[in-house]
Amino acid sequence: MKGINRIQWCSVVLLAFSLTACKVERPGTVFPDAKMENVLYDYHIAKAMGDEVSYNESYKRALYIESVFKKHGITRAEFDSSMVWFARNPEVLAKVYEKVNVRLKAERDGINRLIALRDNKPKESLPGDSVDVWMWQHSYRLSGVPLDNKMVFTLSSDSNFYDRDTLRWSVRFRFRNGVPDSVHAPLMAMQVLYEKGDTVVSAIRKVQDTGMETLTLFADTLGKIKEVRGFIYYPCQEAAWPLLADCISLMRYHATDSLVIASKDTLQQAAVSLHKDSIRKPERVKPLEIREPENAAAPKLVRPRPKK
Predict the structure, then answer these.
(1) Taking 80 as the threshold, does the pLDDT of residue 255 lie above it?
(2) Residues 180 and 226 in one domain
(3) 82 contacts: CB under 8 Å, gap ≥ 6
(4) In 3D, which of 174, 167, 251 has the Cα closest to residue 212?
(5) Which of 75, 65, 76, 73 is nearest to 42 (CA)?
(6) In which domain, by residue range, is 205 found?
(7) Helix (H, G, I), strand (E, B) or coil at 205
(8) At 141, is the secondary structure helix, strand, or coil?
(9) Do 190 and 230 meet the contact criterion of CB atoms below 8 Å apart?
(10) Using CA atoms in the order 197, 198, 203, 206, what is the torsion angle rounded to 10 degrees?
């Protein structure tokens, strides 16, 4: 009985020793996980701020990092020593960085939201098959004099832009003293730039009447849209001929039909087949033959009877 108890006691001691050996030992100089999370969060924000400064002010990068150490009451040597231990224990470091990334993402989203409010435009277009993606003011007054004779926009695509989208830019033009002559009439132009080979599809129109003007662009086979550009140029030099461009919209329409594009090999095979069909010799048509039925009875010879 005593032998059995002694064996059980040895098993308990060995189990406790194995659990102690599996536990990661952390020196007292290494930061706890919570403190390391706060330091890394501020550290990466300081690094991002330093990356934005110009070359002439590169000295500020070191000041941003030092401000983080000063805020948390640590030195660079203590930070580097803790990072060495965390790097040797990637599982612990990964858990810390999961929390840091969540906080950085929330900070980034908050900054983007503030920028969007400041610029009075969303950070990306709204989803939908028919959406107005115009992000700027809806009314412009152009006098026609230099520095006040052009309106330009550039709209980058986002995840809500699809292949084969149709872009339709509409502007209402109104002239104070009538439409100027053709030489001084305003120009309205739009371009769609595609990622495939930087291909550009464009349209331009000279506005020669008061009212709504619309430019429409789309492409079926050019793929993903990179950005949309446009401008209104008013070359009139007469101060008494101001132009008002208002009711501006830029509608984006998703294609609702399906497009089947044949491959290059398929098109070549179809072309060869068509060519063969076009040079094929006509078959000789046999003349029609009129045949007697096989079972038809042969005609009988009948001799005339002699006259009495």
Answers:
(1) yes
(2) yes
(3) 29, 30, 31, 36
(4) 174
(5) 65
(6) 130-253
(7) strand
(8) strand
(9) yes
(10) -140
CA distance 140 to 18: 77
Contact assessment for residue 163 and residue 176, using Cβ atoms and an 8 Å cutoff? no
Closest CA to 165 of 135, 194, 138, 199: 194
Q: Which two tokens stand for residue 236?
A: 């009139």
Final residue in a domain of this structure, among 253, 278, 298 = 253
> Under DSSP, is residue 175 helix (H, G, I), strand (E, B) or coil?
strand
Burial 56-95 (b: 16+ CB within 10 A, else e): eeeeebeebbeebbeeeeeeeebbeebbebbeeeeebbee
Please, are residues 151 and 137 in contact by the beta-carbon 8 Å criterion? no
> Rounded mean pLDDT of 214-227?
92
Across the chain, the runs of DSSP E, i.e. the strands, are: 130-132, 139-142, 150-156, 166-175, 187-194, 200-206, 211-217, 225-233, 243-253
Q: How does residue 168 score in pLDDT terms, banded at 50, 70 and 90?
A: very high
Q: What is the pLDDT of residues 41-59, one digit of tens each?
A: 999 998 888 888 787 888 8
Same-domain status, 169 and 218: yes
Of the candidates 210, 231, 253, which is a domain's last residue?
253
Residue 155, amino acid: L
Q: Which two tokens stand for residue 90?
A: 């990637």
Instruction: Name the pairing type of β-strands 243-253 and 166-175.
Output: antiparallel
Residue recorded with tokens 């044949």: 262
- Residue 108 predicted with pLDDT over 80: no
